[in-house]
Write a structure and sequence with these properties.
alpha/beta; D-Maltodextrin-Binding Protein, domain 2; five-stranded mixed sheet; about 15% strand; Ferric-bd
């Protein structure tokens, strides 16, 4: 090829390479959900490549901590289980503030006022029960009644992040508080492990009632399992799988597009397709779930929950006699 033609061809290629965007995502989503999220984003943004790593939130935070210590932070974006973790990172200056235009479609309680993180879905905690029971609870208070003694199982806040958020929410609620947890303990409520163990115990009839995240019960019900689910009248606690941009991101434009996509109508339709309650107002819930507007969310302050986490665990351990 003549040199002039080679240079002309190179001139066409180089701008394309230079303009290519990419980002690295760390997520605690299940693998299938993570792949769907990345594929949908890339379809909507064909010029952006996404490298992603999937693991549990605790392990991802340990990995990020090691990277920070080594001065080689890899991710541009985090999509993890709860706002409390991201609130801690925001307070430490690890997150970038970004005011997404999509935030107007969300309740202010579901995102950081300064733009450090945004909720992408609602995973609420309510009451699961085995359909063989005669008495169906309608409130959190029902689980502490004498007739429920020895019949209730719940995940431990010493093990489950969602359970710790549930603890912070209910202990801060008028009419419940720490007295409620004392009543549960006195009622021989079993608190151990995570949500998976609770579901198995109730579905198998080992315990008639349990405290559980919504999708586990409602998906199983749709598949014929002998369980049903109650959204208690006092309201529900919730985790929201928030998204955030790292302060040290070198691909902020691509990261901002990723955040906007997750919060957009298309991104929230994807959440529904995965079988979760959307965080965005005006988007219909999955089949079998109540409408978003009909779900009463209890008040929750991520900053307070973060500050109180160790004290809450210690007090819970004391009440339930856990060493």
């Amino acid at each position: 090829m003549p040199r002039s033609l080679f240079l002309a061809a190179l001139a066409l290629i180089v701008p394309t390479l230079a303009s290519a965007e990419s980002l690295t995502l760390y997520t605690s989503q299940p693998n299938e959900d993570a792949q769907k999220t990345v594929d949908a984003f890339k379809a909507a943004n064909p010029g952006i490549e996404v490298n992603w790593v999937r693991d549990g939130t605790t392990k991802l935070m340990a990995r990020l901590s090691a990277e920070t210590a080594a001065g080689s932070v890899q991710p541009d974006v985090l999509l993890i289980s709860d706002t409390v973790t991201l609130e801690g990172m925001a307070q430490q200056g690890q997150l970038a503030a970004y005011k997404s235009p999509e935030a107007a479609a969300y309740d202010p309680a579901l995102y950081s006022a300064k733009g450090y993180y945004y909720s992408t879905k609602l995973i609420t905690t309510g009451i699961v029960y085995n359909t063989a029971v005669k008495e169906v609870p309608t409130s959190w208070a029902d689980l502490a009644k004498p007739e429920m003694a020895g019949k209730v199982v719940m995940p431990s806040p010493l093990y489950s992040g969602a359970a710790l958020i549930h603890l912070a929410t209910l202990t801060g609620a008028e009419g419940l508080g720490w007295d409620y947890y004392k009543a549960l303990a006195a009622n021989k409520t079993v608190a151990e492990g995570g949500n998976g163990g609770v579901f198995k115990a109730v579905a198998a009839g080992e315990k008639p009632y349990g405290v559980l995240v919504d999708y586990m019960a409602l998906r199983a019900k749709a598949e014929g399992a002998p369980v049903d689910f109650v959204f208690p009248k006092e309201g529900v606690s919730y985790v929201t799988e928030p998204v955030a941009i790292l302060a040290g991101s070198t691909h902020k434009a691509a990261a901002e597009k990723f955040v906007d996509f997750l919060l957009s109508k298309a991104g929230q339709d994807l959440v529904v397709d995965m079988g979760y309650i959307p965080a965005r107002n005006g988007v219909a819930s999955p089949k079998g779930f109540p409408a978003r507007a009909d779900i009463k969310l209890m008040a929750f302050d991520p900053a307070k929950a973060l500050a109180d986490a160790d004290a809450n665990k210690a007090r819970f351990s004391e009440i339930f006699g856990i060493q």
